[in-house]
Amino acid sequence: MKKSAALLLTAAMAAMMIAGCGSDSGSGQTQASGAEEDTLVMVTEAGFAPYEYTEDGETVIGVDVDIANEIANELGMKLEIQNTTFDGALTAVQQGKADFAAAGISISEERDKTMDFSIEYATSRQVAVVNKEAGRLASIDDINGDTIIGVQAGTVADTAYCADNGYEPKRYNKFMEAALDLKNDKLDCIIMDELPAQQMVEENDDLTILDGEVMTDKYAIAVQEGNQELLDKINPILQKLIDEGKIDEFTLNHTTK
């Protein structure tokens, strides 16, 4: 009898633990697996200033972080930020290991097959960064199949621009790695978003941005496919931030520092 009672107690405790790892049905809040009930987990790649970057090499800040903080505050939750690679951020949200990903993420047909997106909150131009001294590219029209292009793995520069044009780029986890190769004449150009490109050339006098753009894309927040419940909470907050000019304000704050 004692053994049977112990087994029943163990089973009951296990069931309670499993229930505690899912969503809080009382509040209707969908949680990332393993997250505390009052915590909203954001995953990002903090090498994409001004949208996400580190302060003192540790604390993640940026436009997307400001937006995420507003979302967490509106929902009455604590924000937890997990910093990884860009590809890693997309994988984490696909697998439900984070509530959402915010990392200057562009909506693409390929991504839309494996995750869902919020409303768009920013528009970005994709530009080409080159080494001033190399001088192999005078304009974006000079880019062709023989051009050695650097991209961040998994970005639209990689999966859309290069893929659509049949180019095979050199892929990097961090833009700083690509910048170093560009400075050392191992690349002809880096294709990347305009605002981070401006930050890059400000910090590297030997780099510059070619006139024009290679493509235009829009940013959104990514959630696990089918998580309409969370999108229904995020979208009104994003729209309010857009309508009040808050996102423009966040962007200005992080580009004038």
Describe this structure as you would to a colleague.
With 257 residues, this protein is of the alpha/beta class. Helices cover 37% and strands 22% of the residues. It is built from eight helices and 13 strands. The chain has helices at residues 2-20, 63-75, 86-94, 156-165, 175-183, 194-203, 228-243, 246-255; strands at residues 39-44, 53-55, 59-61, 78-83, 100-101, 115-117, 122-131, 149-152, 170-172, 189-193, 207-209, 215-219, 222-224. Strands 7, 8, 9, 10, 11 and 12 form a six-stranded mixed sheet that branches. A five-stranded mixed sheet has the order 4-1-5-13-6, sandwiched between helices. A two-stranded antiparallel ribbon has the order 2-3. Mean pLDDT is 87; it is low at 1-29.
Determine the structural class based on helices, strands and strand pairing: alpha/beta
Largest sheet: 6 strands, mixed
- In whole angstroms, how far apart are the ends? 70 Å
Number of H- or I-type helical stretches: 8
The helix/strand series, from N terminus to C terminus, equals HEEEHEHEEEEHEHEHEEEHH
Radius of gyration: 21 Å
Shape: globular
